[in-house]
Structure to design on (312 residues):
């Protein structure tokens, strides 16, 4: 199983996939933008401002998903000392961070017409800001130390510690009284969003997921090249 | 029709700025990542060129290096 993540195999897959995913991302994004901005209906309460949901929600979902994966891989890094997990975590972090920032900024823009304020220190928004801090600390931990072993340990601990924040973000709207609305899309409960809005949301989520995969592949390729460049220096 | 889409019932500024910020972030992340990747590919090529014939042969025999050497021409999206 672990051999599946062998860099030699992965590099072959990366080269084949990059162009394909880029083309697919552009196609899905164009379709998603058309659905989100033109075809989808306005909300009876929020009117057209609801369209911000089509960038805000997928960005938040993917930033949460990426950090969860990084955290789980960090357990693997500490327990199995798997070097590919390190590369995968490092390559995932930048897109996760950017999606986190998109969720915060678009959420802030959405807040102004719906709540009358750009920012509120409520549980959901503050915990999302905390997630951005964890992302930042994770990425900085690779820059601070010269010693790679120290960076690996510190970044893994940051990611594992940050995992505590994930359920807090998810359930913050249920546990505390917040300005932020409860989830409309649920896996185990009834989804309260109409299919005409669920469709563009799904397409935009697919486009964002494809973009994160594309960036991951490019970053993974870069990290692999850095290692091999060091290898050439040692020859 | 176009005015309606731009105005979005008075929410145009909020909606369009959200979408523009998202697309701008995507573009920036993509180009920064691409620049970093191309820089490493250029470094690899330059270092490979400077190797003597014997070392170059050793490198060519290793699967992972073969993968990188083939990718230097194919990974430009």
């Amino acid at each position: 199983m672990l051999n599946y993540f062998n860099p030699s195999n992965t590099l072959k897959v990366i080269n084949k996939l990059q162009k394909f995913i880029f083309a697919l991302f552009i196609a899905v994004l164009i379709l998603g933008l058309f659905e989100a901005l033109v075809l989808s209906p306005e909300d009876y309460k929020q009117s057209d401002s609801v369209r911000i949901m089509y960038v805000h929600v997928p960005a938040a979902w993917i930033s949460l998903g990426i950090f969860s994966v990084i955290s789980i891989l960090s357990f693997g890094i500490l327990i199995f000392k798997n070097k590919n997990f390190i590369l995968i975590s490092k390559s995932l972090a930048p897109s996760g961070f950017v999606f986190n920032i998109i969720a915060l900024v678009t959420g802030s823009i959405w807040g102004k017409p719906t709540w009358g304020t750009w920012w509120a220190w409520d549980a959901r928004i503050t915990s999302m800001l905390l997630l951005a801090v964890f992302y930042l600390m994770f990425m900085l931990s690779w820059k601070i130390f010269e010693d790679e072993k120290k960076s690996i340990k510190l970044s893994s601990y940051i990611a594992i510690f940050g995992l505590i924040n994930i359920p807090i973000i998810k359930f913050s709207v249920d546990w505390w009284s917040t300005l932020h609305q409860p989830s409309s899309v649920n896996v185990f409960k009834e989804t309260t969003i109409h299919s005409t809005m669920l469709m563009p949301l799904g397409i935009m989520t697919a486009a964002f997921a494809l973009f994160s995969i594309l960036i991951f592949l490019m970053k993974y390729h870069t990290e692999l090249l850095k290692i091999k460049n060091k290898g050439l220096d040692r020859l | 029709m176009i005015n309606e889409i731009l105005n979005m019932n008075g929410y145009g500024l909020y909606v369009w700025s959200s979408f523009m910020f998202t697309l701008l972030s995507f573009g920036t992340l993509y180009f920064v990542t691409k620049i970093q990747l191309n820089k490493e590919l250029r470094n690899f090529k330059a270092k490979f060129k400077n190797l003597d014939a014997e070392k170059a042969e050793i490198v060519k025999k290793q699967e992972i290096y073969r993968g990188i050497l083939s990718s230097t021409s194919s990974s430009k999206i």
Observations:
- The interface with chain A takes residues 5, 8-12, 14-15, 17-19, 21-22, 25-26, 29-30, 33-34, 36-37, 40-41, 43-44, 47-48, 51, 55, 58-59, 63-65, 67-68, 70-71, 74-75, 77 of chain B (CB under 8 Å).
- Chain B has four helices and no strands.
- Confidence is low (pLDDT under 50) at residues 73-77 of chain B.
- Residues 45 and 53 of chain B are 15 Å apart (CA to CA).
